[in-house]
What does this fold into?
Amino acid sequence: MSLSQLGNGAYIHRIPASSPRQVFIRGGIQLRRLPALSIGSRALVHSVTGSVHSVYRQACNVELNDGALVTLLGREPGHLPHGIRCVLPEPEDFQVWLRPGQAVAADESLLRIPEAGMAIDLSSAADWHCGLDGCAIDQDAEASARAMHAARLVLQQQAPQGGFAPLLLRDVVAGSSLEQAMRRRLSEALPALSRAGLSFDCAAAAQALAQLAGLGPGLTPSGDDFIVGYLAALHARCPREARLRSFLEGLIAPVTRLAAAANAISRQFMLNALAGEFSESLAQVVLAIAGRDQLWLQETAARLVRVGHSSGADSLVGLLFGLRPSLLVADASASRLAAA
Amino acid sequence: MATAFKVVPKEYRDSVSLMQLSALLAKLPGVEQASAVMATENNLALLTEAGFGVSGTGATAADLLIVVRGEQSALVGAIEEALKNLTRQADSGVGQESAAHKPRSVQMALAEAGAANMALISTPGEYAAAEAMKALRLGLNVMLFSDNVSEEEELRLKRAASQRDLILMGPDCGTAIINGVPLAFANVVKRGPIGAIGASGTGLQQVTVLVDRLGLGVSQAIGTGGRDLHAKIGGISMSKGLKDLAADPATRVIVLISKPPAAEVAERILSQARKAGKPVVVNFLGADPRKISGGGVHGARTLEDAARAAVDIARGELPRQSYGDVPPSLVGLPPLAADQRYIRGLYSGGTFCYEAALLLDERLADVYSNTPVRAQGRLEDLWHSHHHTLIDLGDDVFTRGRPHPMIDFRLRNERIAKEAEDPQTAVILLDVVLGYGSNADPAGELVPALRRAREIAARGNRNLAFVGHVCGTEGDPQGLDLQTNALTQAGMVLTQSNAQAVRLAASMVSGRAPGRS
It folds into this structure.
């Protein structure tokens, strides 16, 4: 098996197993065997059951009976810690093959969806993880600062309408009452989170994050995406800032509580983030900043901003805020937000 | 104002669908504001703070909440429309039968339509070159609508097309009319003796529209992509188009349109044009027409001049050197305050914006744009106007994650309001592009924004002038008369072309702002 390695996301290959094209399950039912290409580090599917949760063209979420989410991915989207990338038959569209509610069962080598007539063969899939272990961003390095500013510029220029980025980085004329309310919320929560981060005050940070969780548009609301990006920043700063480790550990319980109140999709991303596992598109931006590679940064940040409608942009806002709050909430912006 | 809401339990629509649903509902008559969000605790609190009464919904973070605010009579219909929209999306998403019948590759499509000789490719840029190459290998001409294709890939594709005697239109080719069929952003024009080749989408639209309005028609309109006349590409597609139109018996006059080409490429194309055996009108925006003219080639200064010259030649008349230097009439325009000195051009068409920059730069000092004529005229902060400012809102900066401004007017309408707040704004210059691909009712989108801008200016005891042109024909789906009537009634001053609109705007601020010395 040959997999192209994207960014520094790491693949560990398994020995390919011989794969007959059909699988028979109890009752003589015949399932089409589809090979999985790779399995994310948090796609825990051994001996579990669950059901199809939600289906999109290039992704399908499966909710396991223990509440965890596994996402089947087509060939186009970036990888996820809880993702299994597989090759669908033509047409390569999960919506054609799967419906919410269909039962799913998995053992070590097969994930079966009998009602869809398919079984995903996990035996020869590569393991994927986001590759941020040991990644450290040196905030004081000039090249890192330049990379962060470049990411901010990408955000300013390319973030779509909706979500946090336009409210923080652009002058939006006479926004709707909903946008104005969201600005007010950000004007309270972000400076509070910034102060809490500077003083390593977990309780205050948890309070500020609670004001953001579930806030805003999108299937994964902007606030949830922001929290994931924020946690990515803290993980990337930890190796160089010893005090941050205990701050991050202090956030595990409150963020777990916030995740419990979120929808299943947001919840999984937040729990991944607490474990230091992130989507490929977000991890690549972190690696580009850590590697001080401005060209790669521009490319990866632009790719991240295109994820979902505003999800990618919101997680980039969270990342930059977690690295350097003044990039997004300088005094002037804070007062502008407050005045809105 | 009243509010209505609907909770749709366990509805996990992707974020793009939710955004589109919110936008759709907000545009319904009688609806002032709408939102489709996940019903999290914080979103419920936010909606309450924003004046939507959404208490006691019983919804959870896993549910979708649709909220609309507006006239009581409109709310039930809006909620019904939202639910219908969700059902439609679901149907289109899971329709196995229809999906199974869609061809999944160029090869499959060709097998189903064996006589086809052209493929229109519109995929994300990273896949576009590979798909275009597959089409070329199958012997198809290609219109490559996709952007984000590198110049190296463009050259490789165009060389491959050239070896097969095919044409590759693009990448980023937004406009073409082939054998009378408008493709992508194009207008419904009569068929006739004028063939056009353009490295610019709106440039082609302007010329073909004016030819139609002047009573003649178009044989073919071929797009080349904006980089075709760069030195690296060498005008491969324009050269192929020129060769084909020269051999086409239905084409009597050829028009070439481009932003300034690389000098050596321009020379090569002009040399080929002089040997075409037919009259060729050339509008290389910014080039001196007198240096182009000669040997069967007529240089034109503006897109309008190019269209008029082509029509005159096709009718057997001598073309004029210039058609538009007569100052437009200022009679009936609103009086402006002393401080109102600047033009703010908000364009959906990139070439219109560039042409405006060229014409204004000849007349006025301090012209800034994201399509500047000279380097010092580049606008650094695109979100804030500075002196005379001309913005191409089709720039990538503005179109990430949202439709092109010819389709989605929200950004332009916001910017109109912002310019109206500036006491120095005298004229707001606009283009309105009709035809396939464009918004179904541009006037319907613009008129409320013009009204609002006037109200903003009136609060500061100011008038505002709105000047522009409608690039469209009576055959266009939106209807030229319908659109122009609505805009004129809203107080917009409409001219026949972009060049005329720019000249009129310049006349209005003449003497108020520094002129070009």
